[in-house]
Structure formats: structure tokens, C-alpha cells
Design a protein that fits this description.
Largest sheet: 5 strands, antiparallel
Helix content: 55-70%
Number of strands: 7
Mean pLDDT: 89
Radius of gyration: 25 Å
Low-confidence stretches: none
Order of helices and strands: EEHHEEEEHHHHHHHHEH
Strand order of the largest sheet: 3-6-2-1-7
Shape: elongated
Structural class: alpha+beta
Number of domains: 2
């Protein structure tokens, strides 16, 4: 069904509660409705008594230098003179009903799609409510990834042991965590309320573990090359310099943003934890996120 239908579902705080929404225009496309979108959605709202700011809300893109409302209700872009299309964002429940009343095979498939999507979402949220600290371990590949990245971690600690004079393992780990998500290990553990026996990385999301592992493996290679070049162990200052050079590469800035998005968004939605330094990185929690989490 995913190959046939792939309607983006997002979660938003709406009137003080978390609700799931889709684009009505996208739904209109997938249902293959013959009518113009604007006519179809207004007819459906009127016929089935959907309520604005309960079942749906309307957004209007803010184009040009301003918007002018006409007597007809049309919104005109003051700069271009063109009509600005209204976008209807509808709840998943409203989308299910619209799919059902289309009374077509595609309509039935779309409704089943939403039922499955909601089922997956509720499953994840139930598990998050039951034990939020371990929600990250729901990922189908988590155990495998955790074992794989243990080897990367050992490569990194062996690298420090063999090629760096100052063996400040905790400091170097904090440098990595600080680069990726602006927190030291101690701060992260405090937010998750981990106890002494809890291994920090057991509570990180799979994709975060992969990013950390890739970074440690790549940095280890750079440190070893510098060791061979100098024919001696690096000082702490030289290690920090190589770390900064390595982390400033453009590809790591991309991974940095991704790691911050995951930490800010997943922890806020699934663990009810807000990372003070990552507020600006929180995104909408979407069906794509659910799929990545549960595989």
C-alpha cells in the first residue's frame, strides 16, 4: 500500500492538544477527485458539517508585500495581483471520513492507509508512555547498531590510548556530544534521569548512534595519520585542533543538524523532555519519523 499511497501525516499542538493532520490538497490528489480542489473541499465541509479549528484549519501563504481580501472572499497578493490559494489542513479523522465517502476503491485504500498509520502511531505513543527512557530501543535494528557502534567506540578509545598523550576520554566524549547536540554526557544523563548503571548510549536513538560511530571512526583515522606524521603522540591541544578541523567539514555539519533535529523532536514527543539548547531544532513529528523509529 505504501507504494500506492504515501500521504504525509504530521503532529501539531492544536488548541492545547496533540493532533494529527494531513494536507487536504494532497488527499484530494490521492483520491483522484474530478472536481476542482477548492470546490470539493468547501462542498465536503458544508455537507458533512466539519468545524473549522476543530476538524480543520486554513492557512494562507504570505506572498508579496501584503494580502488583500476581496468582497468575494478571495485573497489577492498585493504585489502580483494573483489569487493566493487557501490551504486546508485537516485532521486524520476528517481525512478518513472524506476517503470513506468517496466510495471508490482508491478511497477505501486511502482510509485503510490512515487506519494503519494511526495504529503505528498509537503503538509507539503507548510504549513511550509506558517506558519513555527505552523508546529508542523499539527500532528493529537498534541491538545490531548498538553492537556495531561498540566496536567504533573501542577503536576511538584505542586511538586515544595509543596516539594521544593526554588520556582524557570523558573530555573528548563531551567534545563530541557538545558538537553534535550541545550537551555534555552528564547533562544528557540528567535530562533522562539515568542512574549510574545505565550506559548512556543504550538510551540514544539508532540514527544518533550511527552518527556518533561514524564520527569516532573518521576522527580516529585522522588522529592516527597525524601521529604517523609527527612520529609521536599528540598533545591535548593538538588533539583538539584535529577535532575542530575534522568537525568543521561540511558533511559533519549536515549530520550535526540531523542529530539535533532528532534529539529535540523525538525527546519532546516521546519522552516529554525538552533540551534547552536545542529548542530551535524541534520539527514536526511526522509519519516518516514513526517509520524510521520502528523500521
Amino acid at each position: 500500500m505504501n507504494d500506492l499511497i504515501n500521504i504525509k501525516v504530521i503532529q501539531k499542538d492544536f488548541n492545547g492538544e496533540k493532533k494529527r493532520f494531513v494536507s487536504a490538497r494532497e488527499l484530494h490528489h490521492w483520491l483522484g477527485v474530478g472536481k476542482r480542489f477548492a470546490t470539493w473541499i468547501t462542498d465536503r465541509i458544508s455537507k458533512y458539517d466539519f468545524v473549522e479549528d476543530l476538524d480543520y484549519f486554513i492557512t494562507i501563504p504570505n506572498f508579496g508585500n501584503g494580502l488583500n481580501t476581496q468582497i468575494t472572499g478571495k485573497i489577492i497578493d498585493a504585489k502580483t495581483g494573483k489569487v493566493v490559494a487557501k490551504e486546508y489542513v485537516i485532521s486524520v479523522d476528517m481525512a478518513k471520513e472524506l476517503a470513506m465517502v468517496e466510495n471508490s476503491e482508491v478511497g477505501k485504500m486511502v482510509r485503510k492507509y490512515f487506519i494503519r498509520v494511526e495504529g503505528e502511531f498509537k503503538k509507539v505513543m503507548r510504549l513511550a508512555a509506558f517506558n519513555p527512557k527505552t523508546i529508542n530501543q523499539l527500532a528493529s535494528q537498534f541491538a545490531e547498531t548498538r553492537e556495531e557502534t561498540k566496536d567504533y567506540r573501542k577503536d576511538f578509545t584505542d586511538c586515544v590510548k595509543n596516539f594521544v598523550a593526554a588520556k582524557n576520554y570523558g573530555t573528548y566524549t563531551d567534545m563530541l556530544y557538545g558538537f553534535l547536540f550541545l550537551e555534555r554526557a552528564k547533562q544528557y544523563r540528567k535530562l533522562l534521569e539515568l542512574v549510574k548503571k545505565d550506559l548512556t548510549r543504550n538510551y540514544m536513538y539508532e540514527e544518533i548512534l550511527l552518527i556518533i560511530g561514524a564520527f569516532e571512526a573518521g576522527l580516529s583515522g585522522e588522529i592516527e595519520k597525524e601521529f604517523k606524521k609527527l612520529s609521536r603522540q599528540l598533545t591535548k591541544e593538538e588533539f583538539v585542533k584535529k577535532f575542530n578541523e575534522f568537525s568543521s567539514q561540511k558533511n559533519w555539519l549536515v549530520y550535526q543538524k540531523r542529530a539535533r533535529n532528532i534529539m529535540a523532536t523525538y525527546d519532546a514527543e516521546l519522552r516529554n523532555i525538552k533540551h534547552p539548547k536545542l529548542i530551535d531544532y524541534k520539527k514536526e513529528f511526522s509519519q516518516e519519523d514513526i517509520q524510521k523509529l520502528i523500521g
